[in-house]
Design brief:
Elements: E1 16-17, E2 30-32, E3 39-40, E4 53-56, E5 62-63, E6 76-79, E7 83-84, E8 96-99, E9 105-106, E10 119-121, E11 128-129, E12 142-145, E13 151-152, E14 165-168, E15 174-175, E16 188-190, E17 197-198, E18 211-213, E19 220-221, E20 234-237, E21 243-244, E22 257-260, E23 264-265, E24 277-280, E25 286-287, E26 300-303, E27 309-310, E28 323-326, E29 332-333, E30 346-349, E31 355-356, E32 369-372, E33 376-377, E34 389-392, E35 398-399, E36 412-414, E37 421-422, E38 435-437, E39 444-445, E40 467-468, E41 481-484, E42 490-491, E43 504-507, E44 513-514, E45 527-530, E46 537-538, H1 546-551, E47 553-557, H2 561-566, E48 575-579, E49 594-598, E50 611-617, E51 622-627
Parallel strand pairs: 1-3, 2-4, 3-5, 4-6, 6-8, 7-9, 8-10, 9-11, 11-13, 12-14, 13-15, 14-16, 15-17, 17-19, 18-20, 19-21, 20-22, 22-24, 23-25, 24-26, 25-27, 27-29, 28-30, 29-31, 30-32, 32-34, 33-35, 34-36, 35-37, 36-38, 37-39, 40-42, 41-43, 42-44, 43-45, 44-46, 45-47, 47-48
Antiparallel strand pairs: 49-50, 50-51
């Protein structure tokens, strides 16, 4: 034991330093290992208590794990060997490390536990950083990984809590699992554009990280990769990413903005209630099942023009979402996709949608505005009682069964010329609807399509419709007059049942059948004009109330009165008169009804009298009617 030895020079011919060679040389302050040395054995410098610096030559390949045990003064190390092993593992006193140009690899646990290390410069010749190489180097504040490094091992910088910035070179292809895990002081990281995979838990617990840019080269992000990054506020994921692992962004409670460009979006952000803004780029194709489930903080979502499908439950319980615009590229929307989005007030659906699952907008109790451009409209908005405005685009062909059934706040709707069919109960119980214009393109209107529209004051039956279905306008108590065009040949059961405000009915010349209780209108029905030369057949259930037969004026074409007086049902009318139907077209204004009647001398009369009657209509027009 050479306790007084202060310096030693090792010759260039030495290839090995044997076990305990300098053990106990407590006065030794520095040592240079020449390039000839390849191995340093056990306890070679054990208890060299004043040894402050060591230089490893370029031939060293093997150093025993205990070669420098109990060297508490060791603060500086210089490496020139090709591969650095775990020779200084746990040396908390180490503050400065110099890596020479001959070094190509920093091995497993090389500086693990060197908590006193504050800085390190990695030269361009290094190509790999091994597993746990700088594990728990809590004093390290910054790291720059040069471009020649191609891989960063698992846990390479794990728990480097003092690290504030990291730059990962452009030749690194993979970041190992837990590579920067629990680097709680890390505020910024630059990921090189050759990285293809970010391993599981790579940046987990980096609570000070505020933003990260993931380059277009990355294809996979592992499980828990950014879990616990409490300070992360924004995130952009490029179109190259095809796989994101479980809980990759778990406990990122500060995340408010997410921009996604990857083709398929998985359930990566479900229940991230801090997220307020979601931007989906044009490279996105599908939004997966429960992708943003219960993200109650989201207020805006921008869906790119490349999206074709929105998965089931995709935005379920996004209660802060106020509006959604679904582009023309989307063809399918899964069941319950927007269920319980209670803050949603406005929905626009593009013309590409061909399939929508069940309960898509169920529980969207705040919905007030809907704009639809898809070809077929389903019952997606049934019972949405707050909807006030509906806009139907020129791509709409069919308004399906129950489409707006129970939407009691809708005040008006314009149906475009592209629409050909209106389904059963489509606008049933839309009690605030005051007017609706049905274009001539419509050829079929389903049962009860407008039943219970108590605010409706006028209707038009388009020329393409040949049948008025059962209950079509039943309980439309606001209707005052109805004109049924010459193209209609049948009127179904209960068609105008309980239209208590109805005063005038005009029936076109092609109607040959009227169903049971079709015009059971208890109220002030004044006149019925029938243009058919042959009395229409009627159901055994009788179309009219007894009071209608008693008090309402029935007008039939000149020369047909005797036929009507003999026909079932029609013969029950007490007041039947003829009128010249040949030069009187079926009115186009369905609000027009009889308001007064005069004889040929201009005297006001209360009921039809034989001879010429002059009838004044509500729109100011005058008719001459011949009563026989």
């Amino acid at each position: 034991m050479c306790s007084g030895l202060t310096s030693v020079t090792i010759g260039n011919s030495v290839t090995s330093i044997g076990g305990s060679s300098f053990s106990g040389c407590s006065a030794l302050t520095s040592i240079v290992i020449p390039n000839s040395v390849t191995s340093i054995e056990n306890y070679a410098f054990y208890k060299c208590t004043n040894l402050a610096s060591i230089t490893f030559g370029n031939s060293v390949t093997s150093v025993a794990w205990d070669a420098f045990n109990d060297c508490p003064a060791l603060t500086s190390a210089t490496f020139n060997c090709k591969a650095i092993g775990n020779w200084l593992k746990g040396k908390k006193s180490i503050k400065e490390v110099t890596i020479g140009n001959d070094v190509t690899s920093i091995g497993k646990q090389a500086f693990s536990g060197c908590s006193g290390l504050t800085s390190i410069s990695i030269p361009n010749n290094v190509t790999s950083i091994g597993e746990s190489a700088f594990y728990a180097c809590s004093g390290l504040t910054s790291i720059s990984i040069p471009n020649n490094v191609t891989s960063i091992g698992e846990s390479a910088f794990y728990a480097c809590s003092g690290l504030t910035s990291a730059i990962i070179g452009n030749r690194v292809t993979s970041i190992g699992k837990s590579a920067f895990k629990n680097c709680s002081g890390l505020t910024s990281v630059t990921i090189g554009n050759s990285v293809t995979s970010i391993g599981g838990s790579s940046f987990s617990g980096c609570s000070s990280l505020t933003s990260v840019t993931i380059p277009n080269s990355v294809t996979s992000i592992g499980d828990y990769a950014f879990s616990g990054c409490l300070g992360l506020t924004s995130l952009t994921i490029p179109n190259s990413v095809t796989s994101i692992g479980e809980a990759a962004f778990n406990m990122c409670s500060g995340l408010t903005s997410v921009t996604l460009n990857c083709k398929n979006i998985g359930r990566w952000f479900a229940e991230k209630k801090s997220i307020k803004e979601v931007i989906l780029g044009d490279d996105v194709i599908s939004i997966g099942f429960r992708a943003f489930y219960n993200c109650s903080g989201i207020t805006t979502v921008t869906i790119g023009k490349g999206v074709t499908s929105i998965g089931g439950d995709a935005f379920w319980k996004c209660t802060g979402l106020t509006s959604i615009n679904i582009p023309n590229s989307v063809t399918s929307i899964g069941s319950e996709a927007f269920r319980d989005c209670t803050g949603l007030t406005s929905v626009t659906i593009g013309n590409g949608v061909t399939s929508i699952g069940k309960y898509v907008f169920s529980g969207c109790s705040g919905l007030t505005f809907v704009s639809l451009n898809c070809k077929e409209i389903g019952d997606w908005f049934k019972e949405k009682k707050l909807i006030k405005e509906v806009i139907l685009g020129d791509d709409v062909i069919s308004i399906g069964n129950d489409a707006f059934n129970g939407c009691s706040s809708i005040t008006s709707v314009t149906i475009p010329n592209s629409v050909t069919s209106i389904g059963d109960h489509a606008f049933s119980e839309c009690s605030s609807l005051t007017s609706v214009t049905i274009p001539n393109s419509v050829t079929s209107i389903g049962n009860h399509a407008f039943s219970g529209c108590t605010g409706l004051t006028s209707v038009n039956i388009p020329n393409g419709v040949t049948s008025i279905e059962n209950g079509l306008f039943s309980n439309c108590s606001g209707l005052t007059s109805v004109t049924i065009s010459n193209n209609v040949n049948s009127i179904g059961d209960n068609a105008f049942y309980q239209c208590s405000g109805l005063k005038s009915i005009t029936i076109g010349n092609s109607v040959n059948w009227i169903g049971s209780t079709a015009f059971y209108c208890k109220g002030s029905l004044v006149s019925i004009y029938v243009h058919s030369l042959t009395p229409p057949k009627t159901s055994a259930g009788v179309p009219f109330l007894t009071e209608t037969f008693e008090s309402t004026n029935l007008y039939v074409p000149t020369g047909t009165i005797e036929y009507y007086k003999k026909a079932d049902c029609w013969k029950r009318f007490k007041n039947i008169s003829e009128f010249d139907a040949t030069d009187i077209k079926v009115a186009t204004n369905e609000n027009v009804f009889e308001v007064a009647r005069y004889n040929i001398n201009g005297k006001l009369i209360s009921s039809p009298q034989k001879g010429v009657n002059i009838v004044k209509m509500s729109d100011g027009s005058i008719k001459k009617v011949l009563v026989k």
